[in-house]
Design a protein that fits this description.
Blueprint lengths: L2 E5 L6 H12 L2 E4 H10 L5 H9 L6 H15 L6 E4 L5 H13 L6 E6 L2 H15 L7 H23 L4 E5 L4 H17 L1
Parallel strand pairs: 1-3, 1-4, 2-3, 4-5
Helix pairs in contact: 1-8, 2-3
The chain binds adenosine-5'-diphosphate.
The site of adenosine-5'-diphosphate has 18 residues, from helix 2 and helix 3.
């Protein structure tokens, strides 16, 4: 079964690529950042907690993230679509949790796409996104620094974990979105033909 993780720092284009890929491959998208922001806009009981963590650029506690991911997999159970993760996992604990969860669903991760983008480009993109989308976590240099730091310290190590399983593919994320999606499609299509 085709199940993909999009990995990359804040501003690397995971969300944009997820949208493009969903159209082509009928993926069931699991975007943790979007799911968390939905807790705020829909005024769920988790709103205050999520707001506090997102506003500080920190990762929300695993107890909540895990629950949201589990719910998504349950929702997809009857459809059985291939999964596309964006923004999850972001730590080794989350990666280990996901492996266990997927085993319970008789499936596993097939490929992990790492979007490579230079630090300068990321900062420029986040600045632009702050004006376009108005996300509070993009508007403050301190929050951006915290997120970049968490990415380097906690998220990047999971690339090695998937590399050791021969599942990691690097894509130049500095190209325009159409070029990036073409590069990802090549990887996916090769995997499908295997
Ligand atoms: P970006 O990749 O630009 O940081 P996201 O929308 O993916 O944007 O994430 C926004 C915020 O949501 C993160 O800074 C964090 O607070 C929270 N978040 C997203 N993914 C996770 C995760 N896997 N675990 C915990 N918190 C998360």
């Amino acid at each position: 079964m085709l199940n993909i993780i999009l990995l990359g720092p804040p501003g690397s284009g995971k969300g944009t690529q997820a949208e493009l890929l969903v159209k082509k491959y009928n993926f069931f998208p699991i975007s943790l950042g979007a799911l968390l922001r939905k807790q705020i806009t829909e005024n769920t009981p988790h709103k205050a907690l999520v707001q506090e963590y997102i506003d500080n650029g920190q990762l929300v506690p695993d107890s909540l993230s895990f629950q949201l991911v589990v719910n998504q997999l349950v929702q997809n159970q009857s459809q059985g679509k291939p999964l596309l993760f964006d923004g999850f996992p972001r730590t080794m604990d989350q990666a280990a949790f996901l492996d266990g969860l997927l085993i319970k669903h008789n499936t596993k991760i097939s490929s992990v796409i790492l979007l490579d983008v230079s630090h300068e480009t990321l900062l420029q993109r986040l600045k632009d996104r702050a004006t376009i989308q108005g996300r509070s976590d993009d508007q403050d240099d301190q929050k951006i620094t915290t997120r970049m730091h968490i990415y380097a310290e906690q998220t990047l190590p999971i690339a090695n974990y998937y590399q050791a399983q021969h599942k990691l593919y690097r894509v130049d994320g500095a190209q325009n979105p159409e070029q990036v999606v073409k590069a990802i499609e090549k990887i996916i299509d090769r995997w499908i033909k295997k």
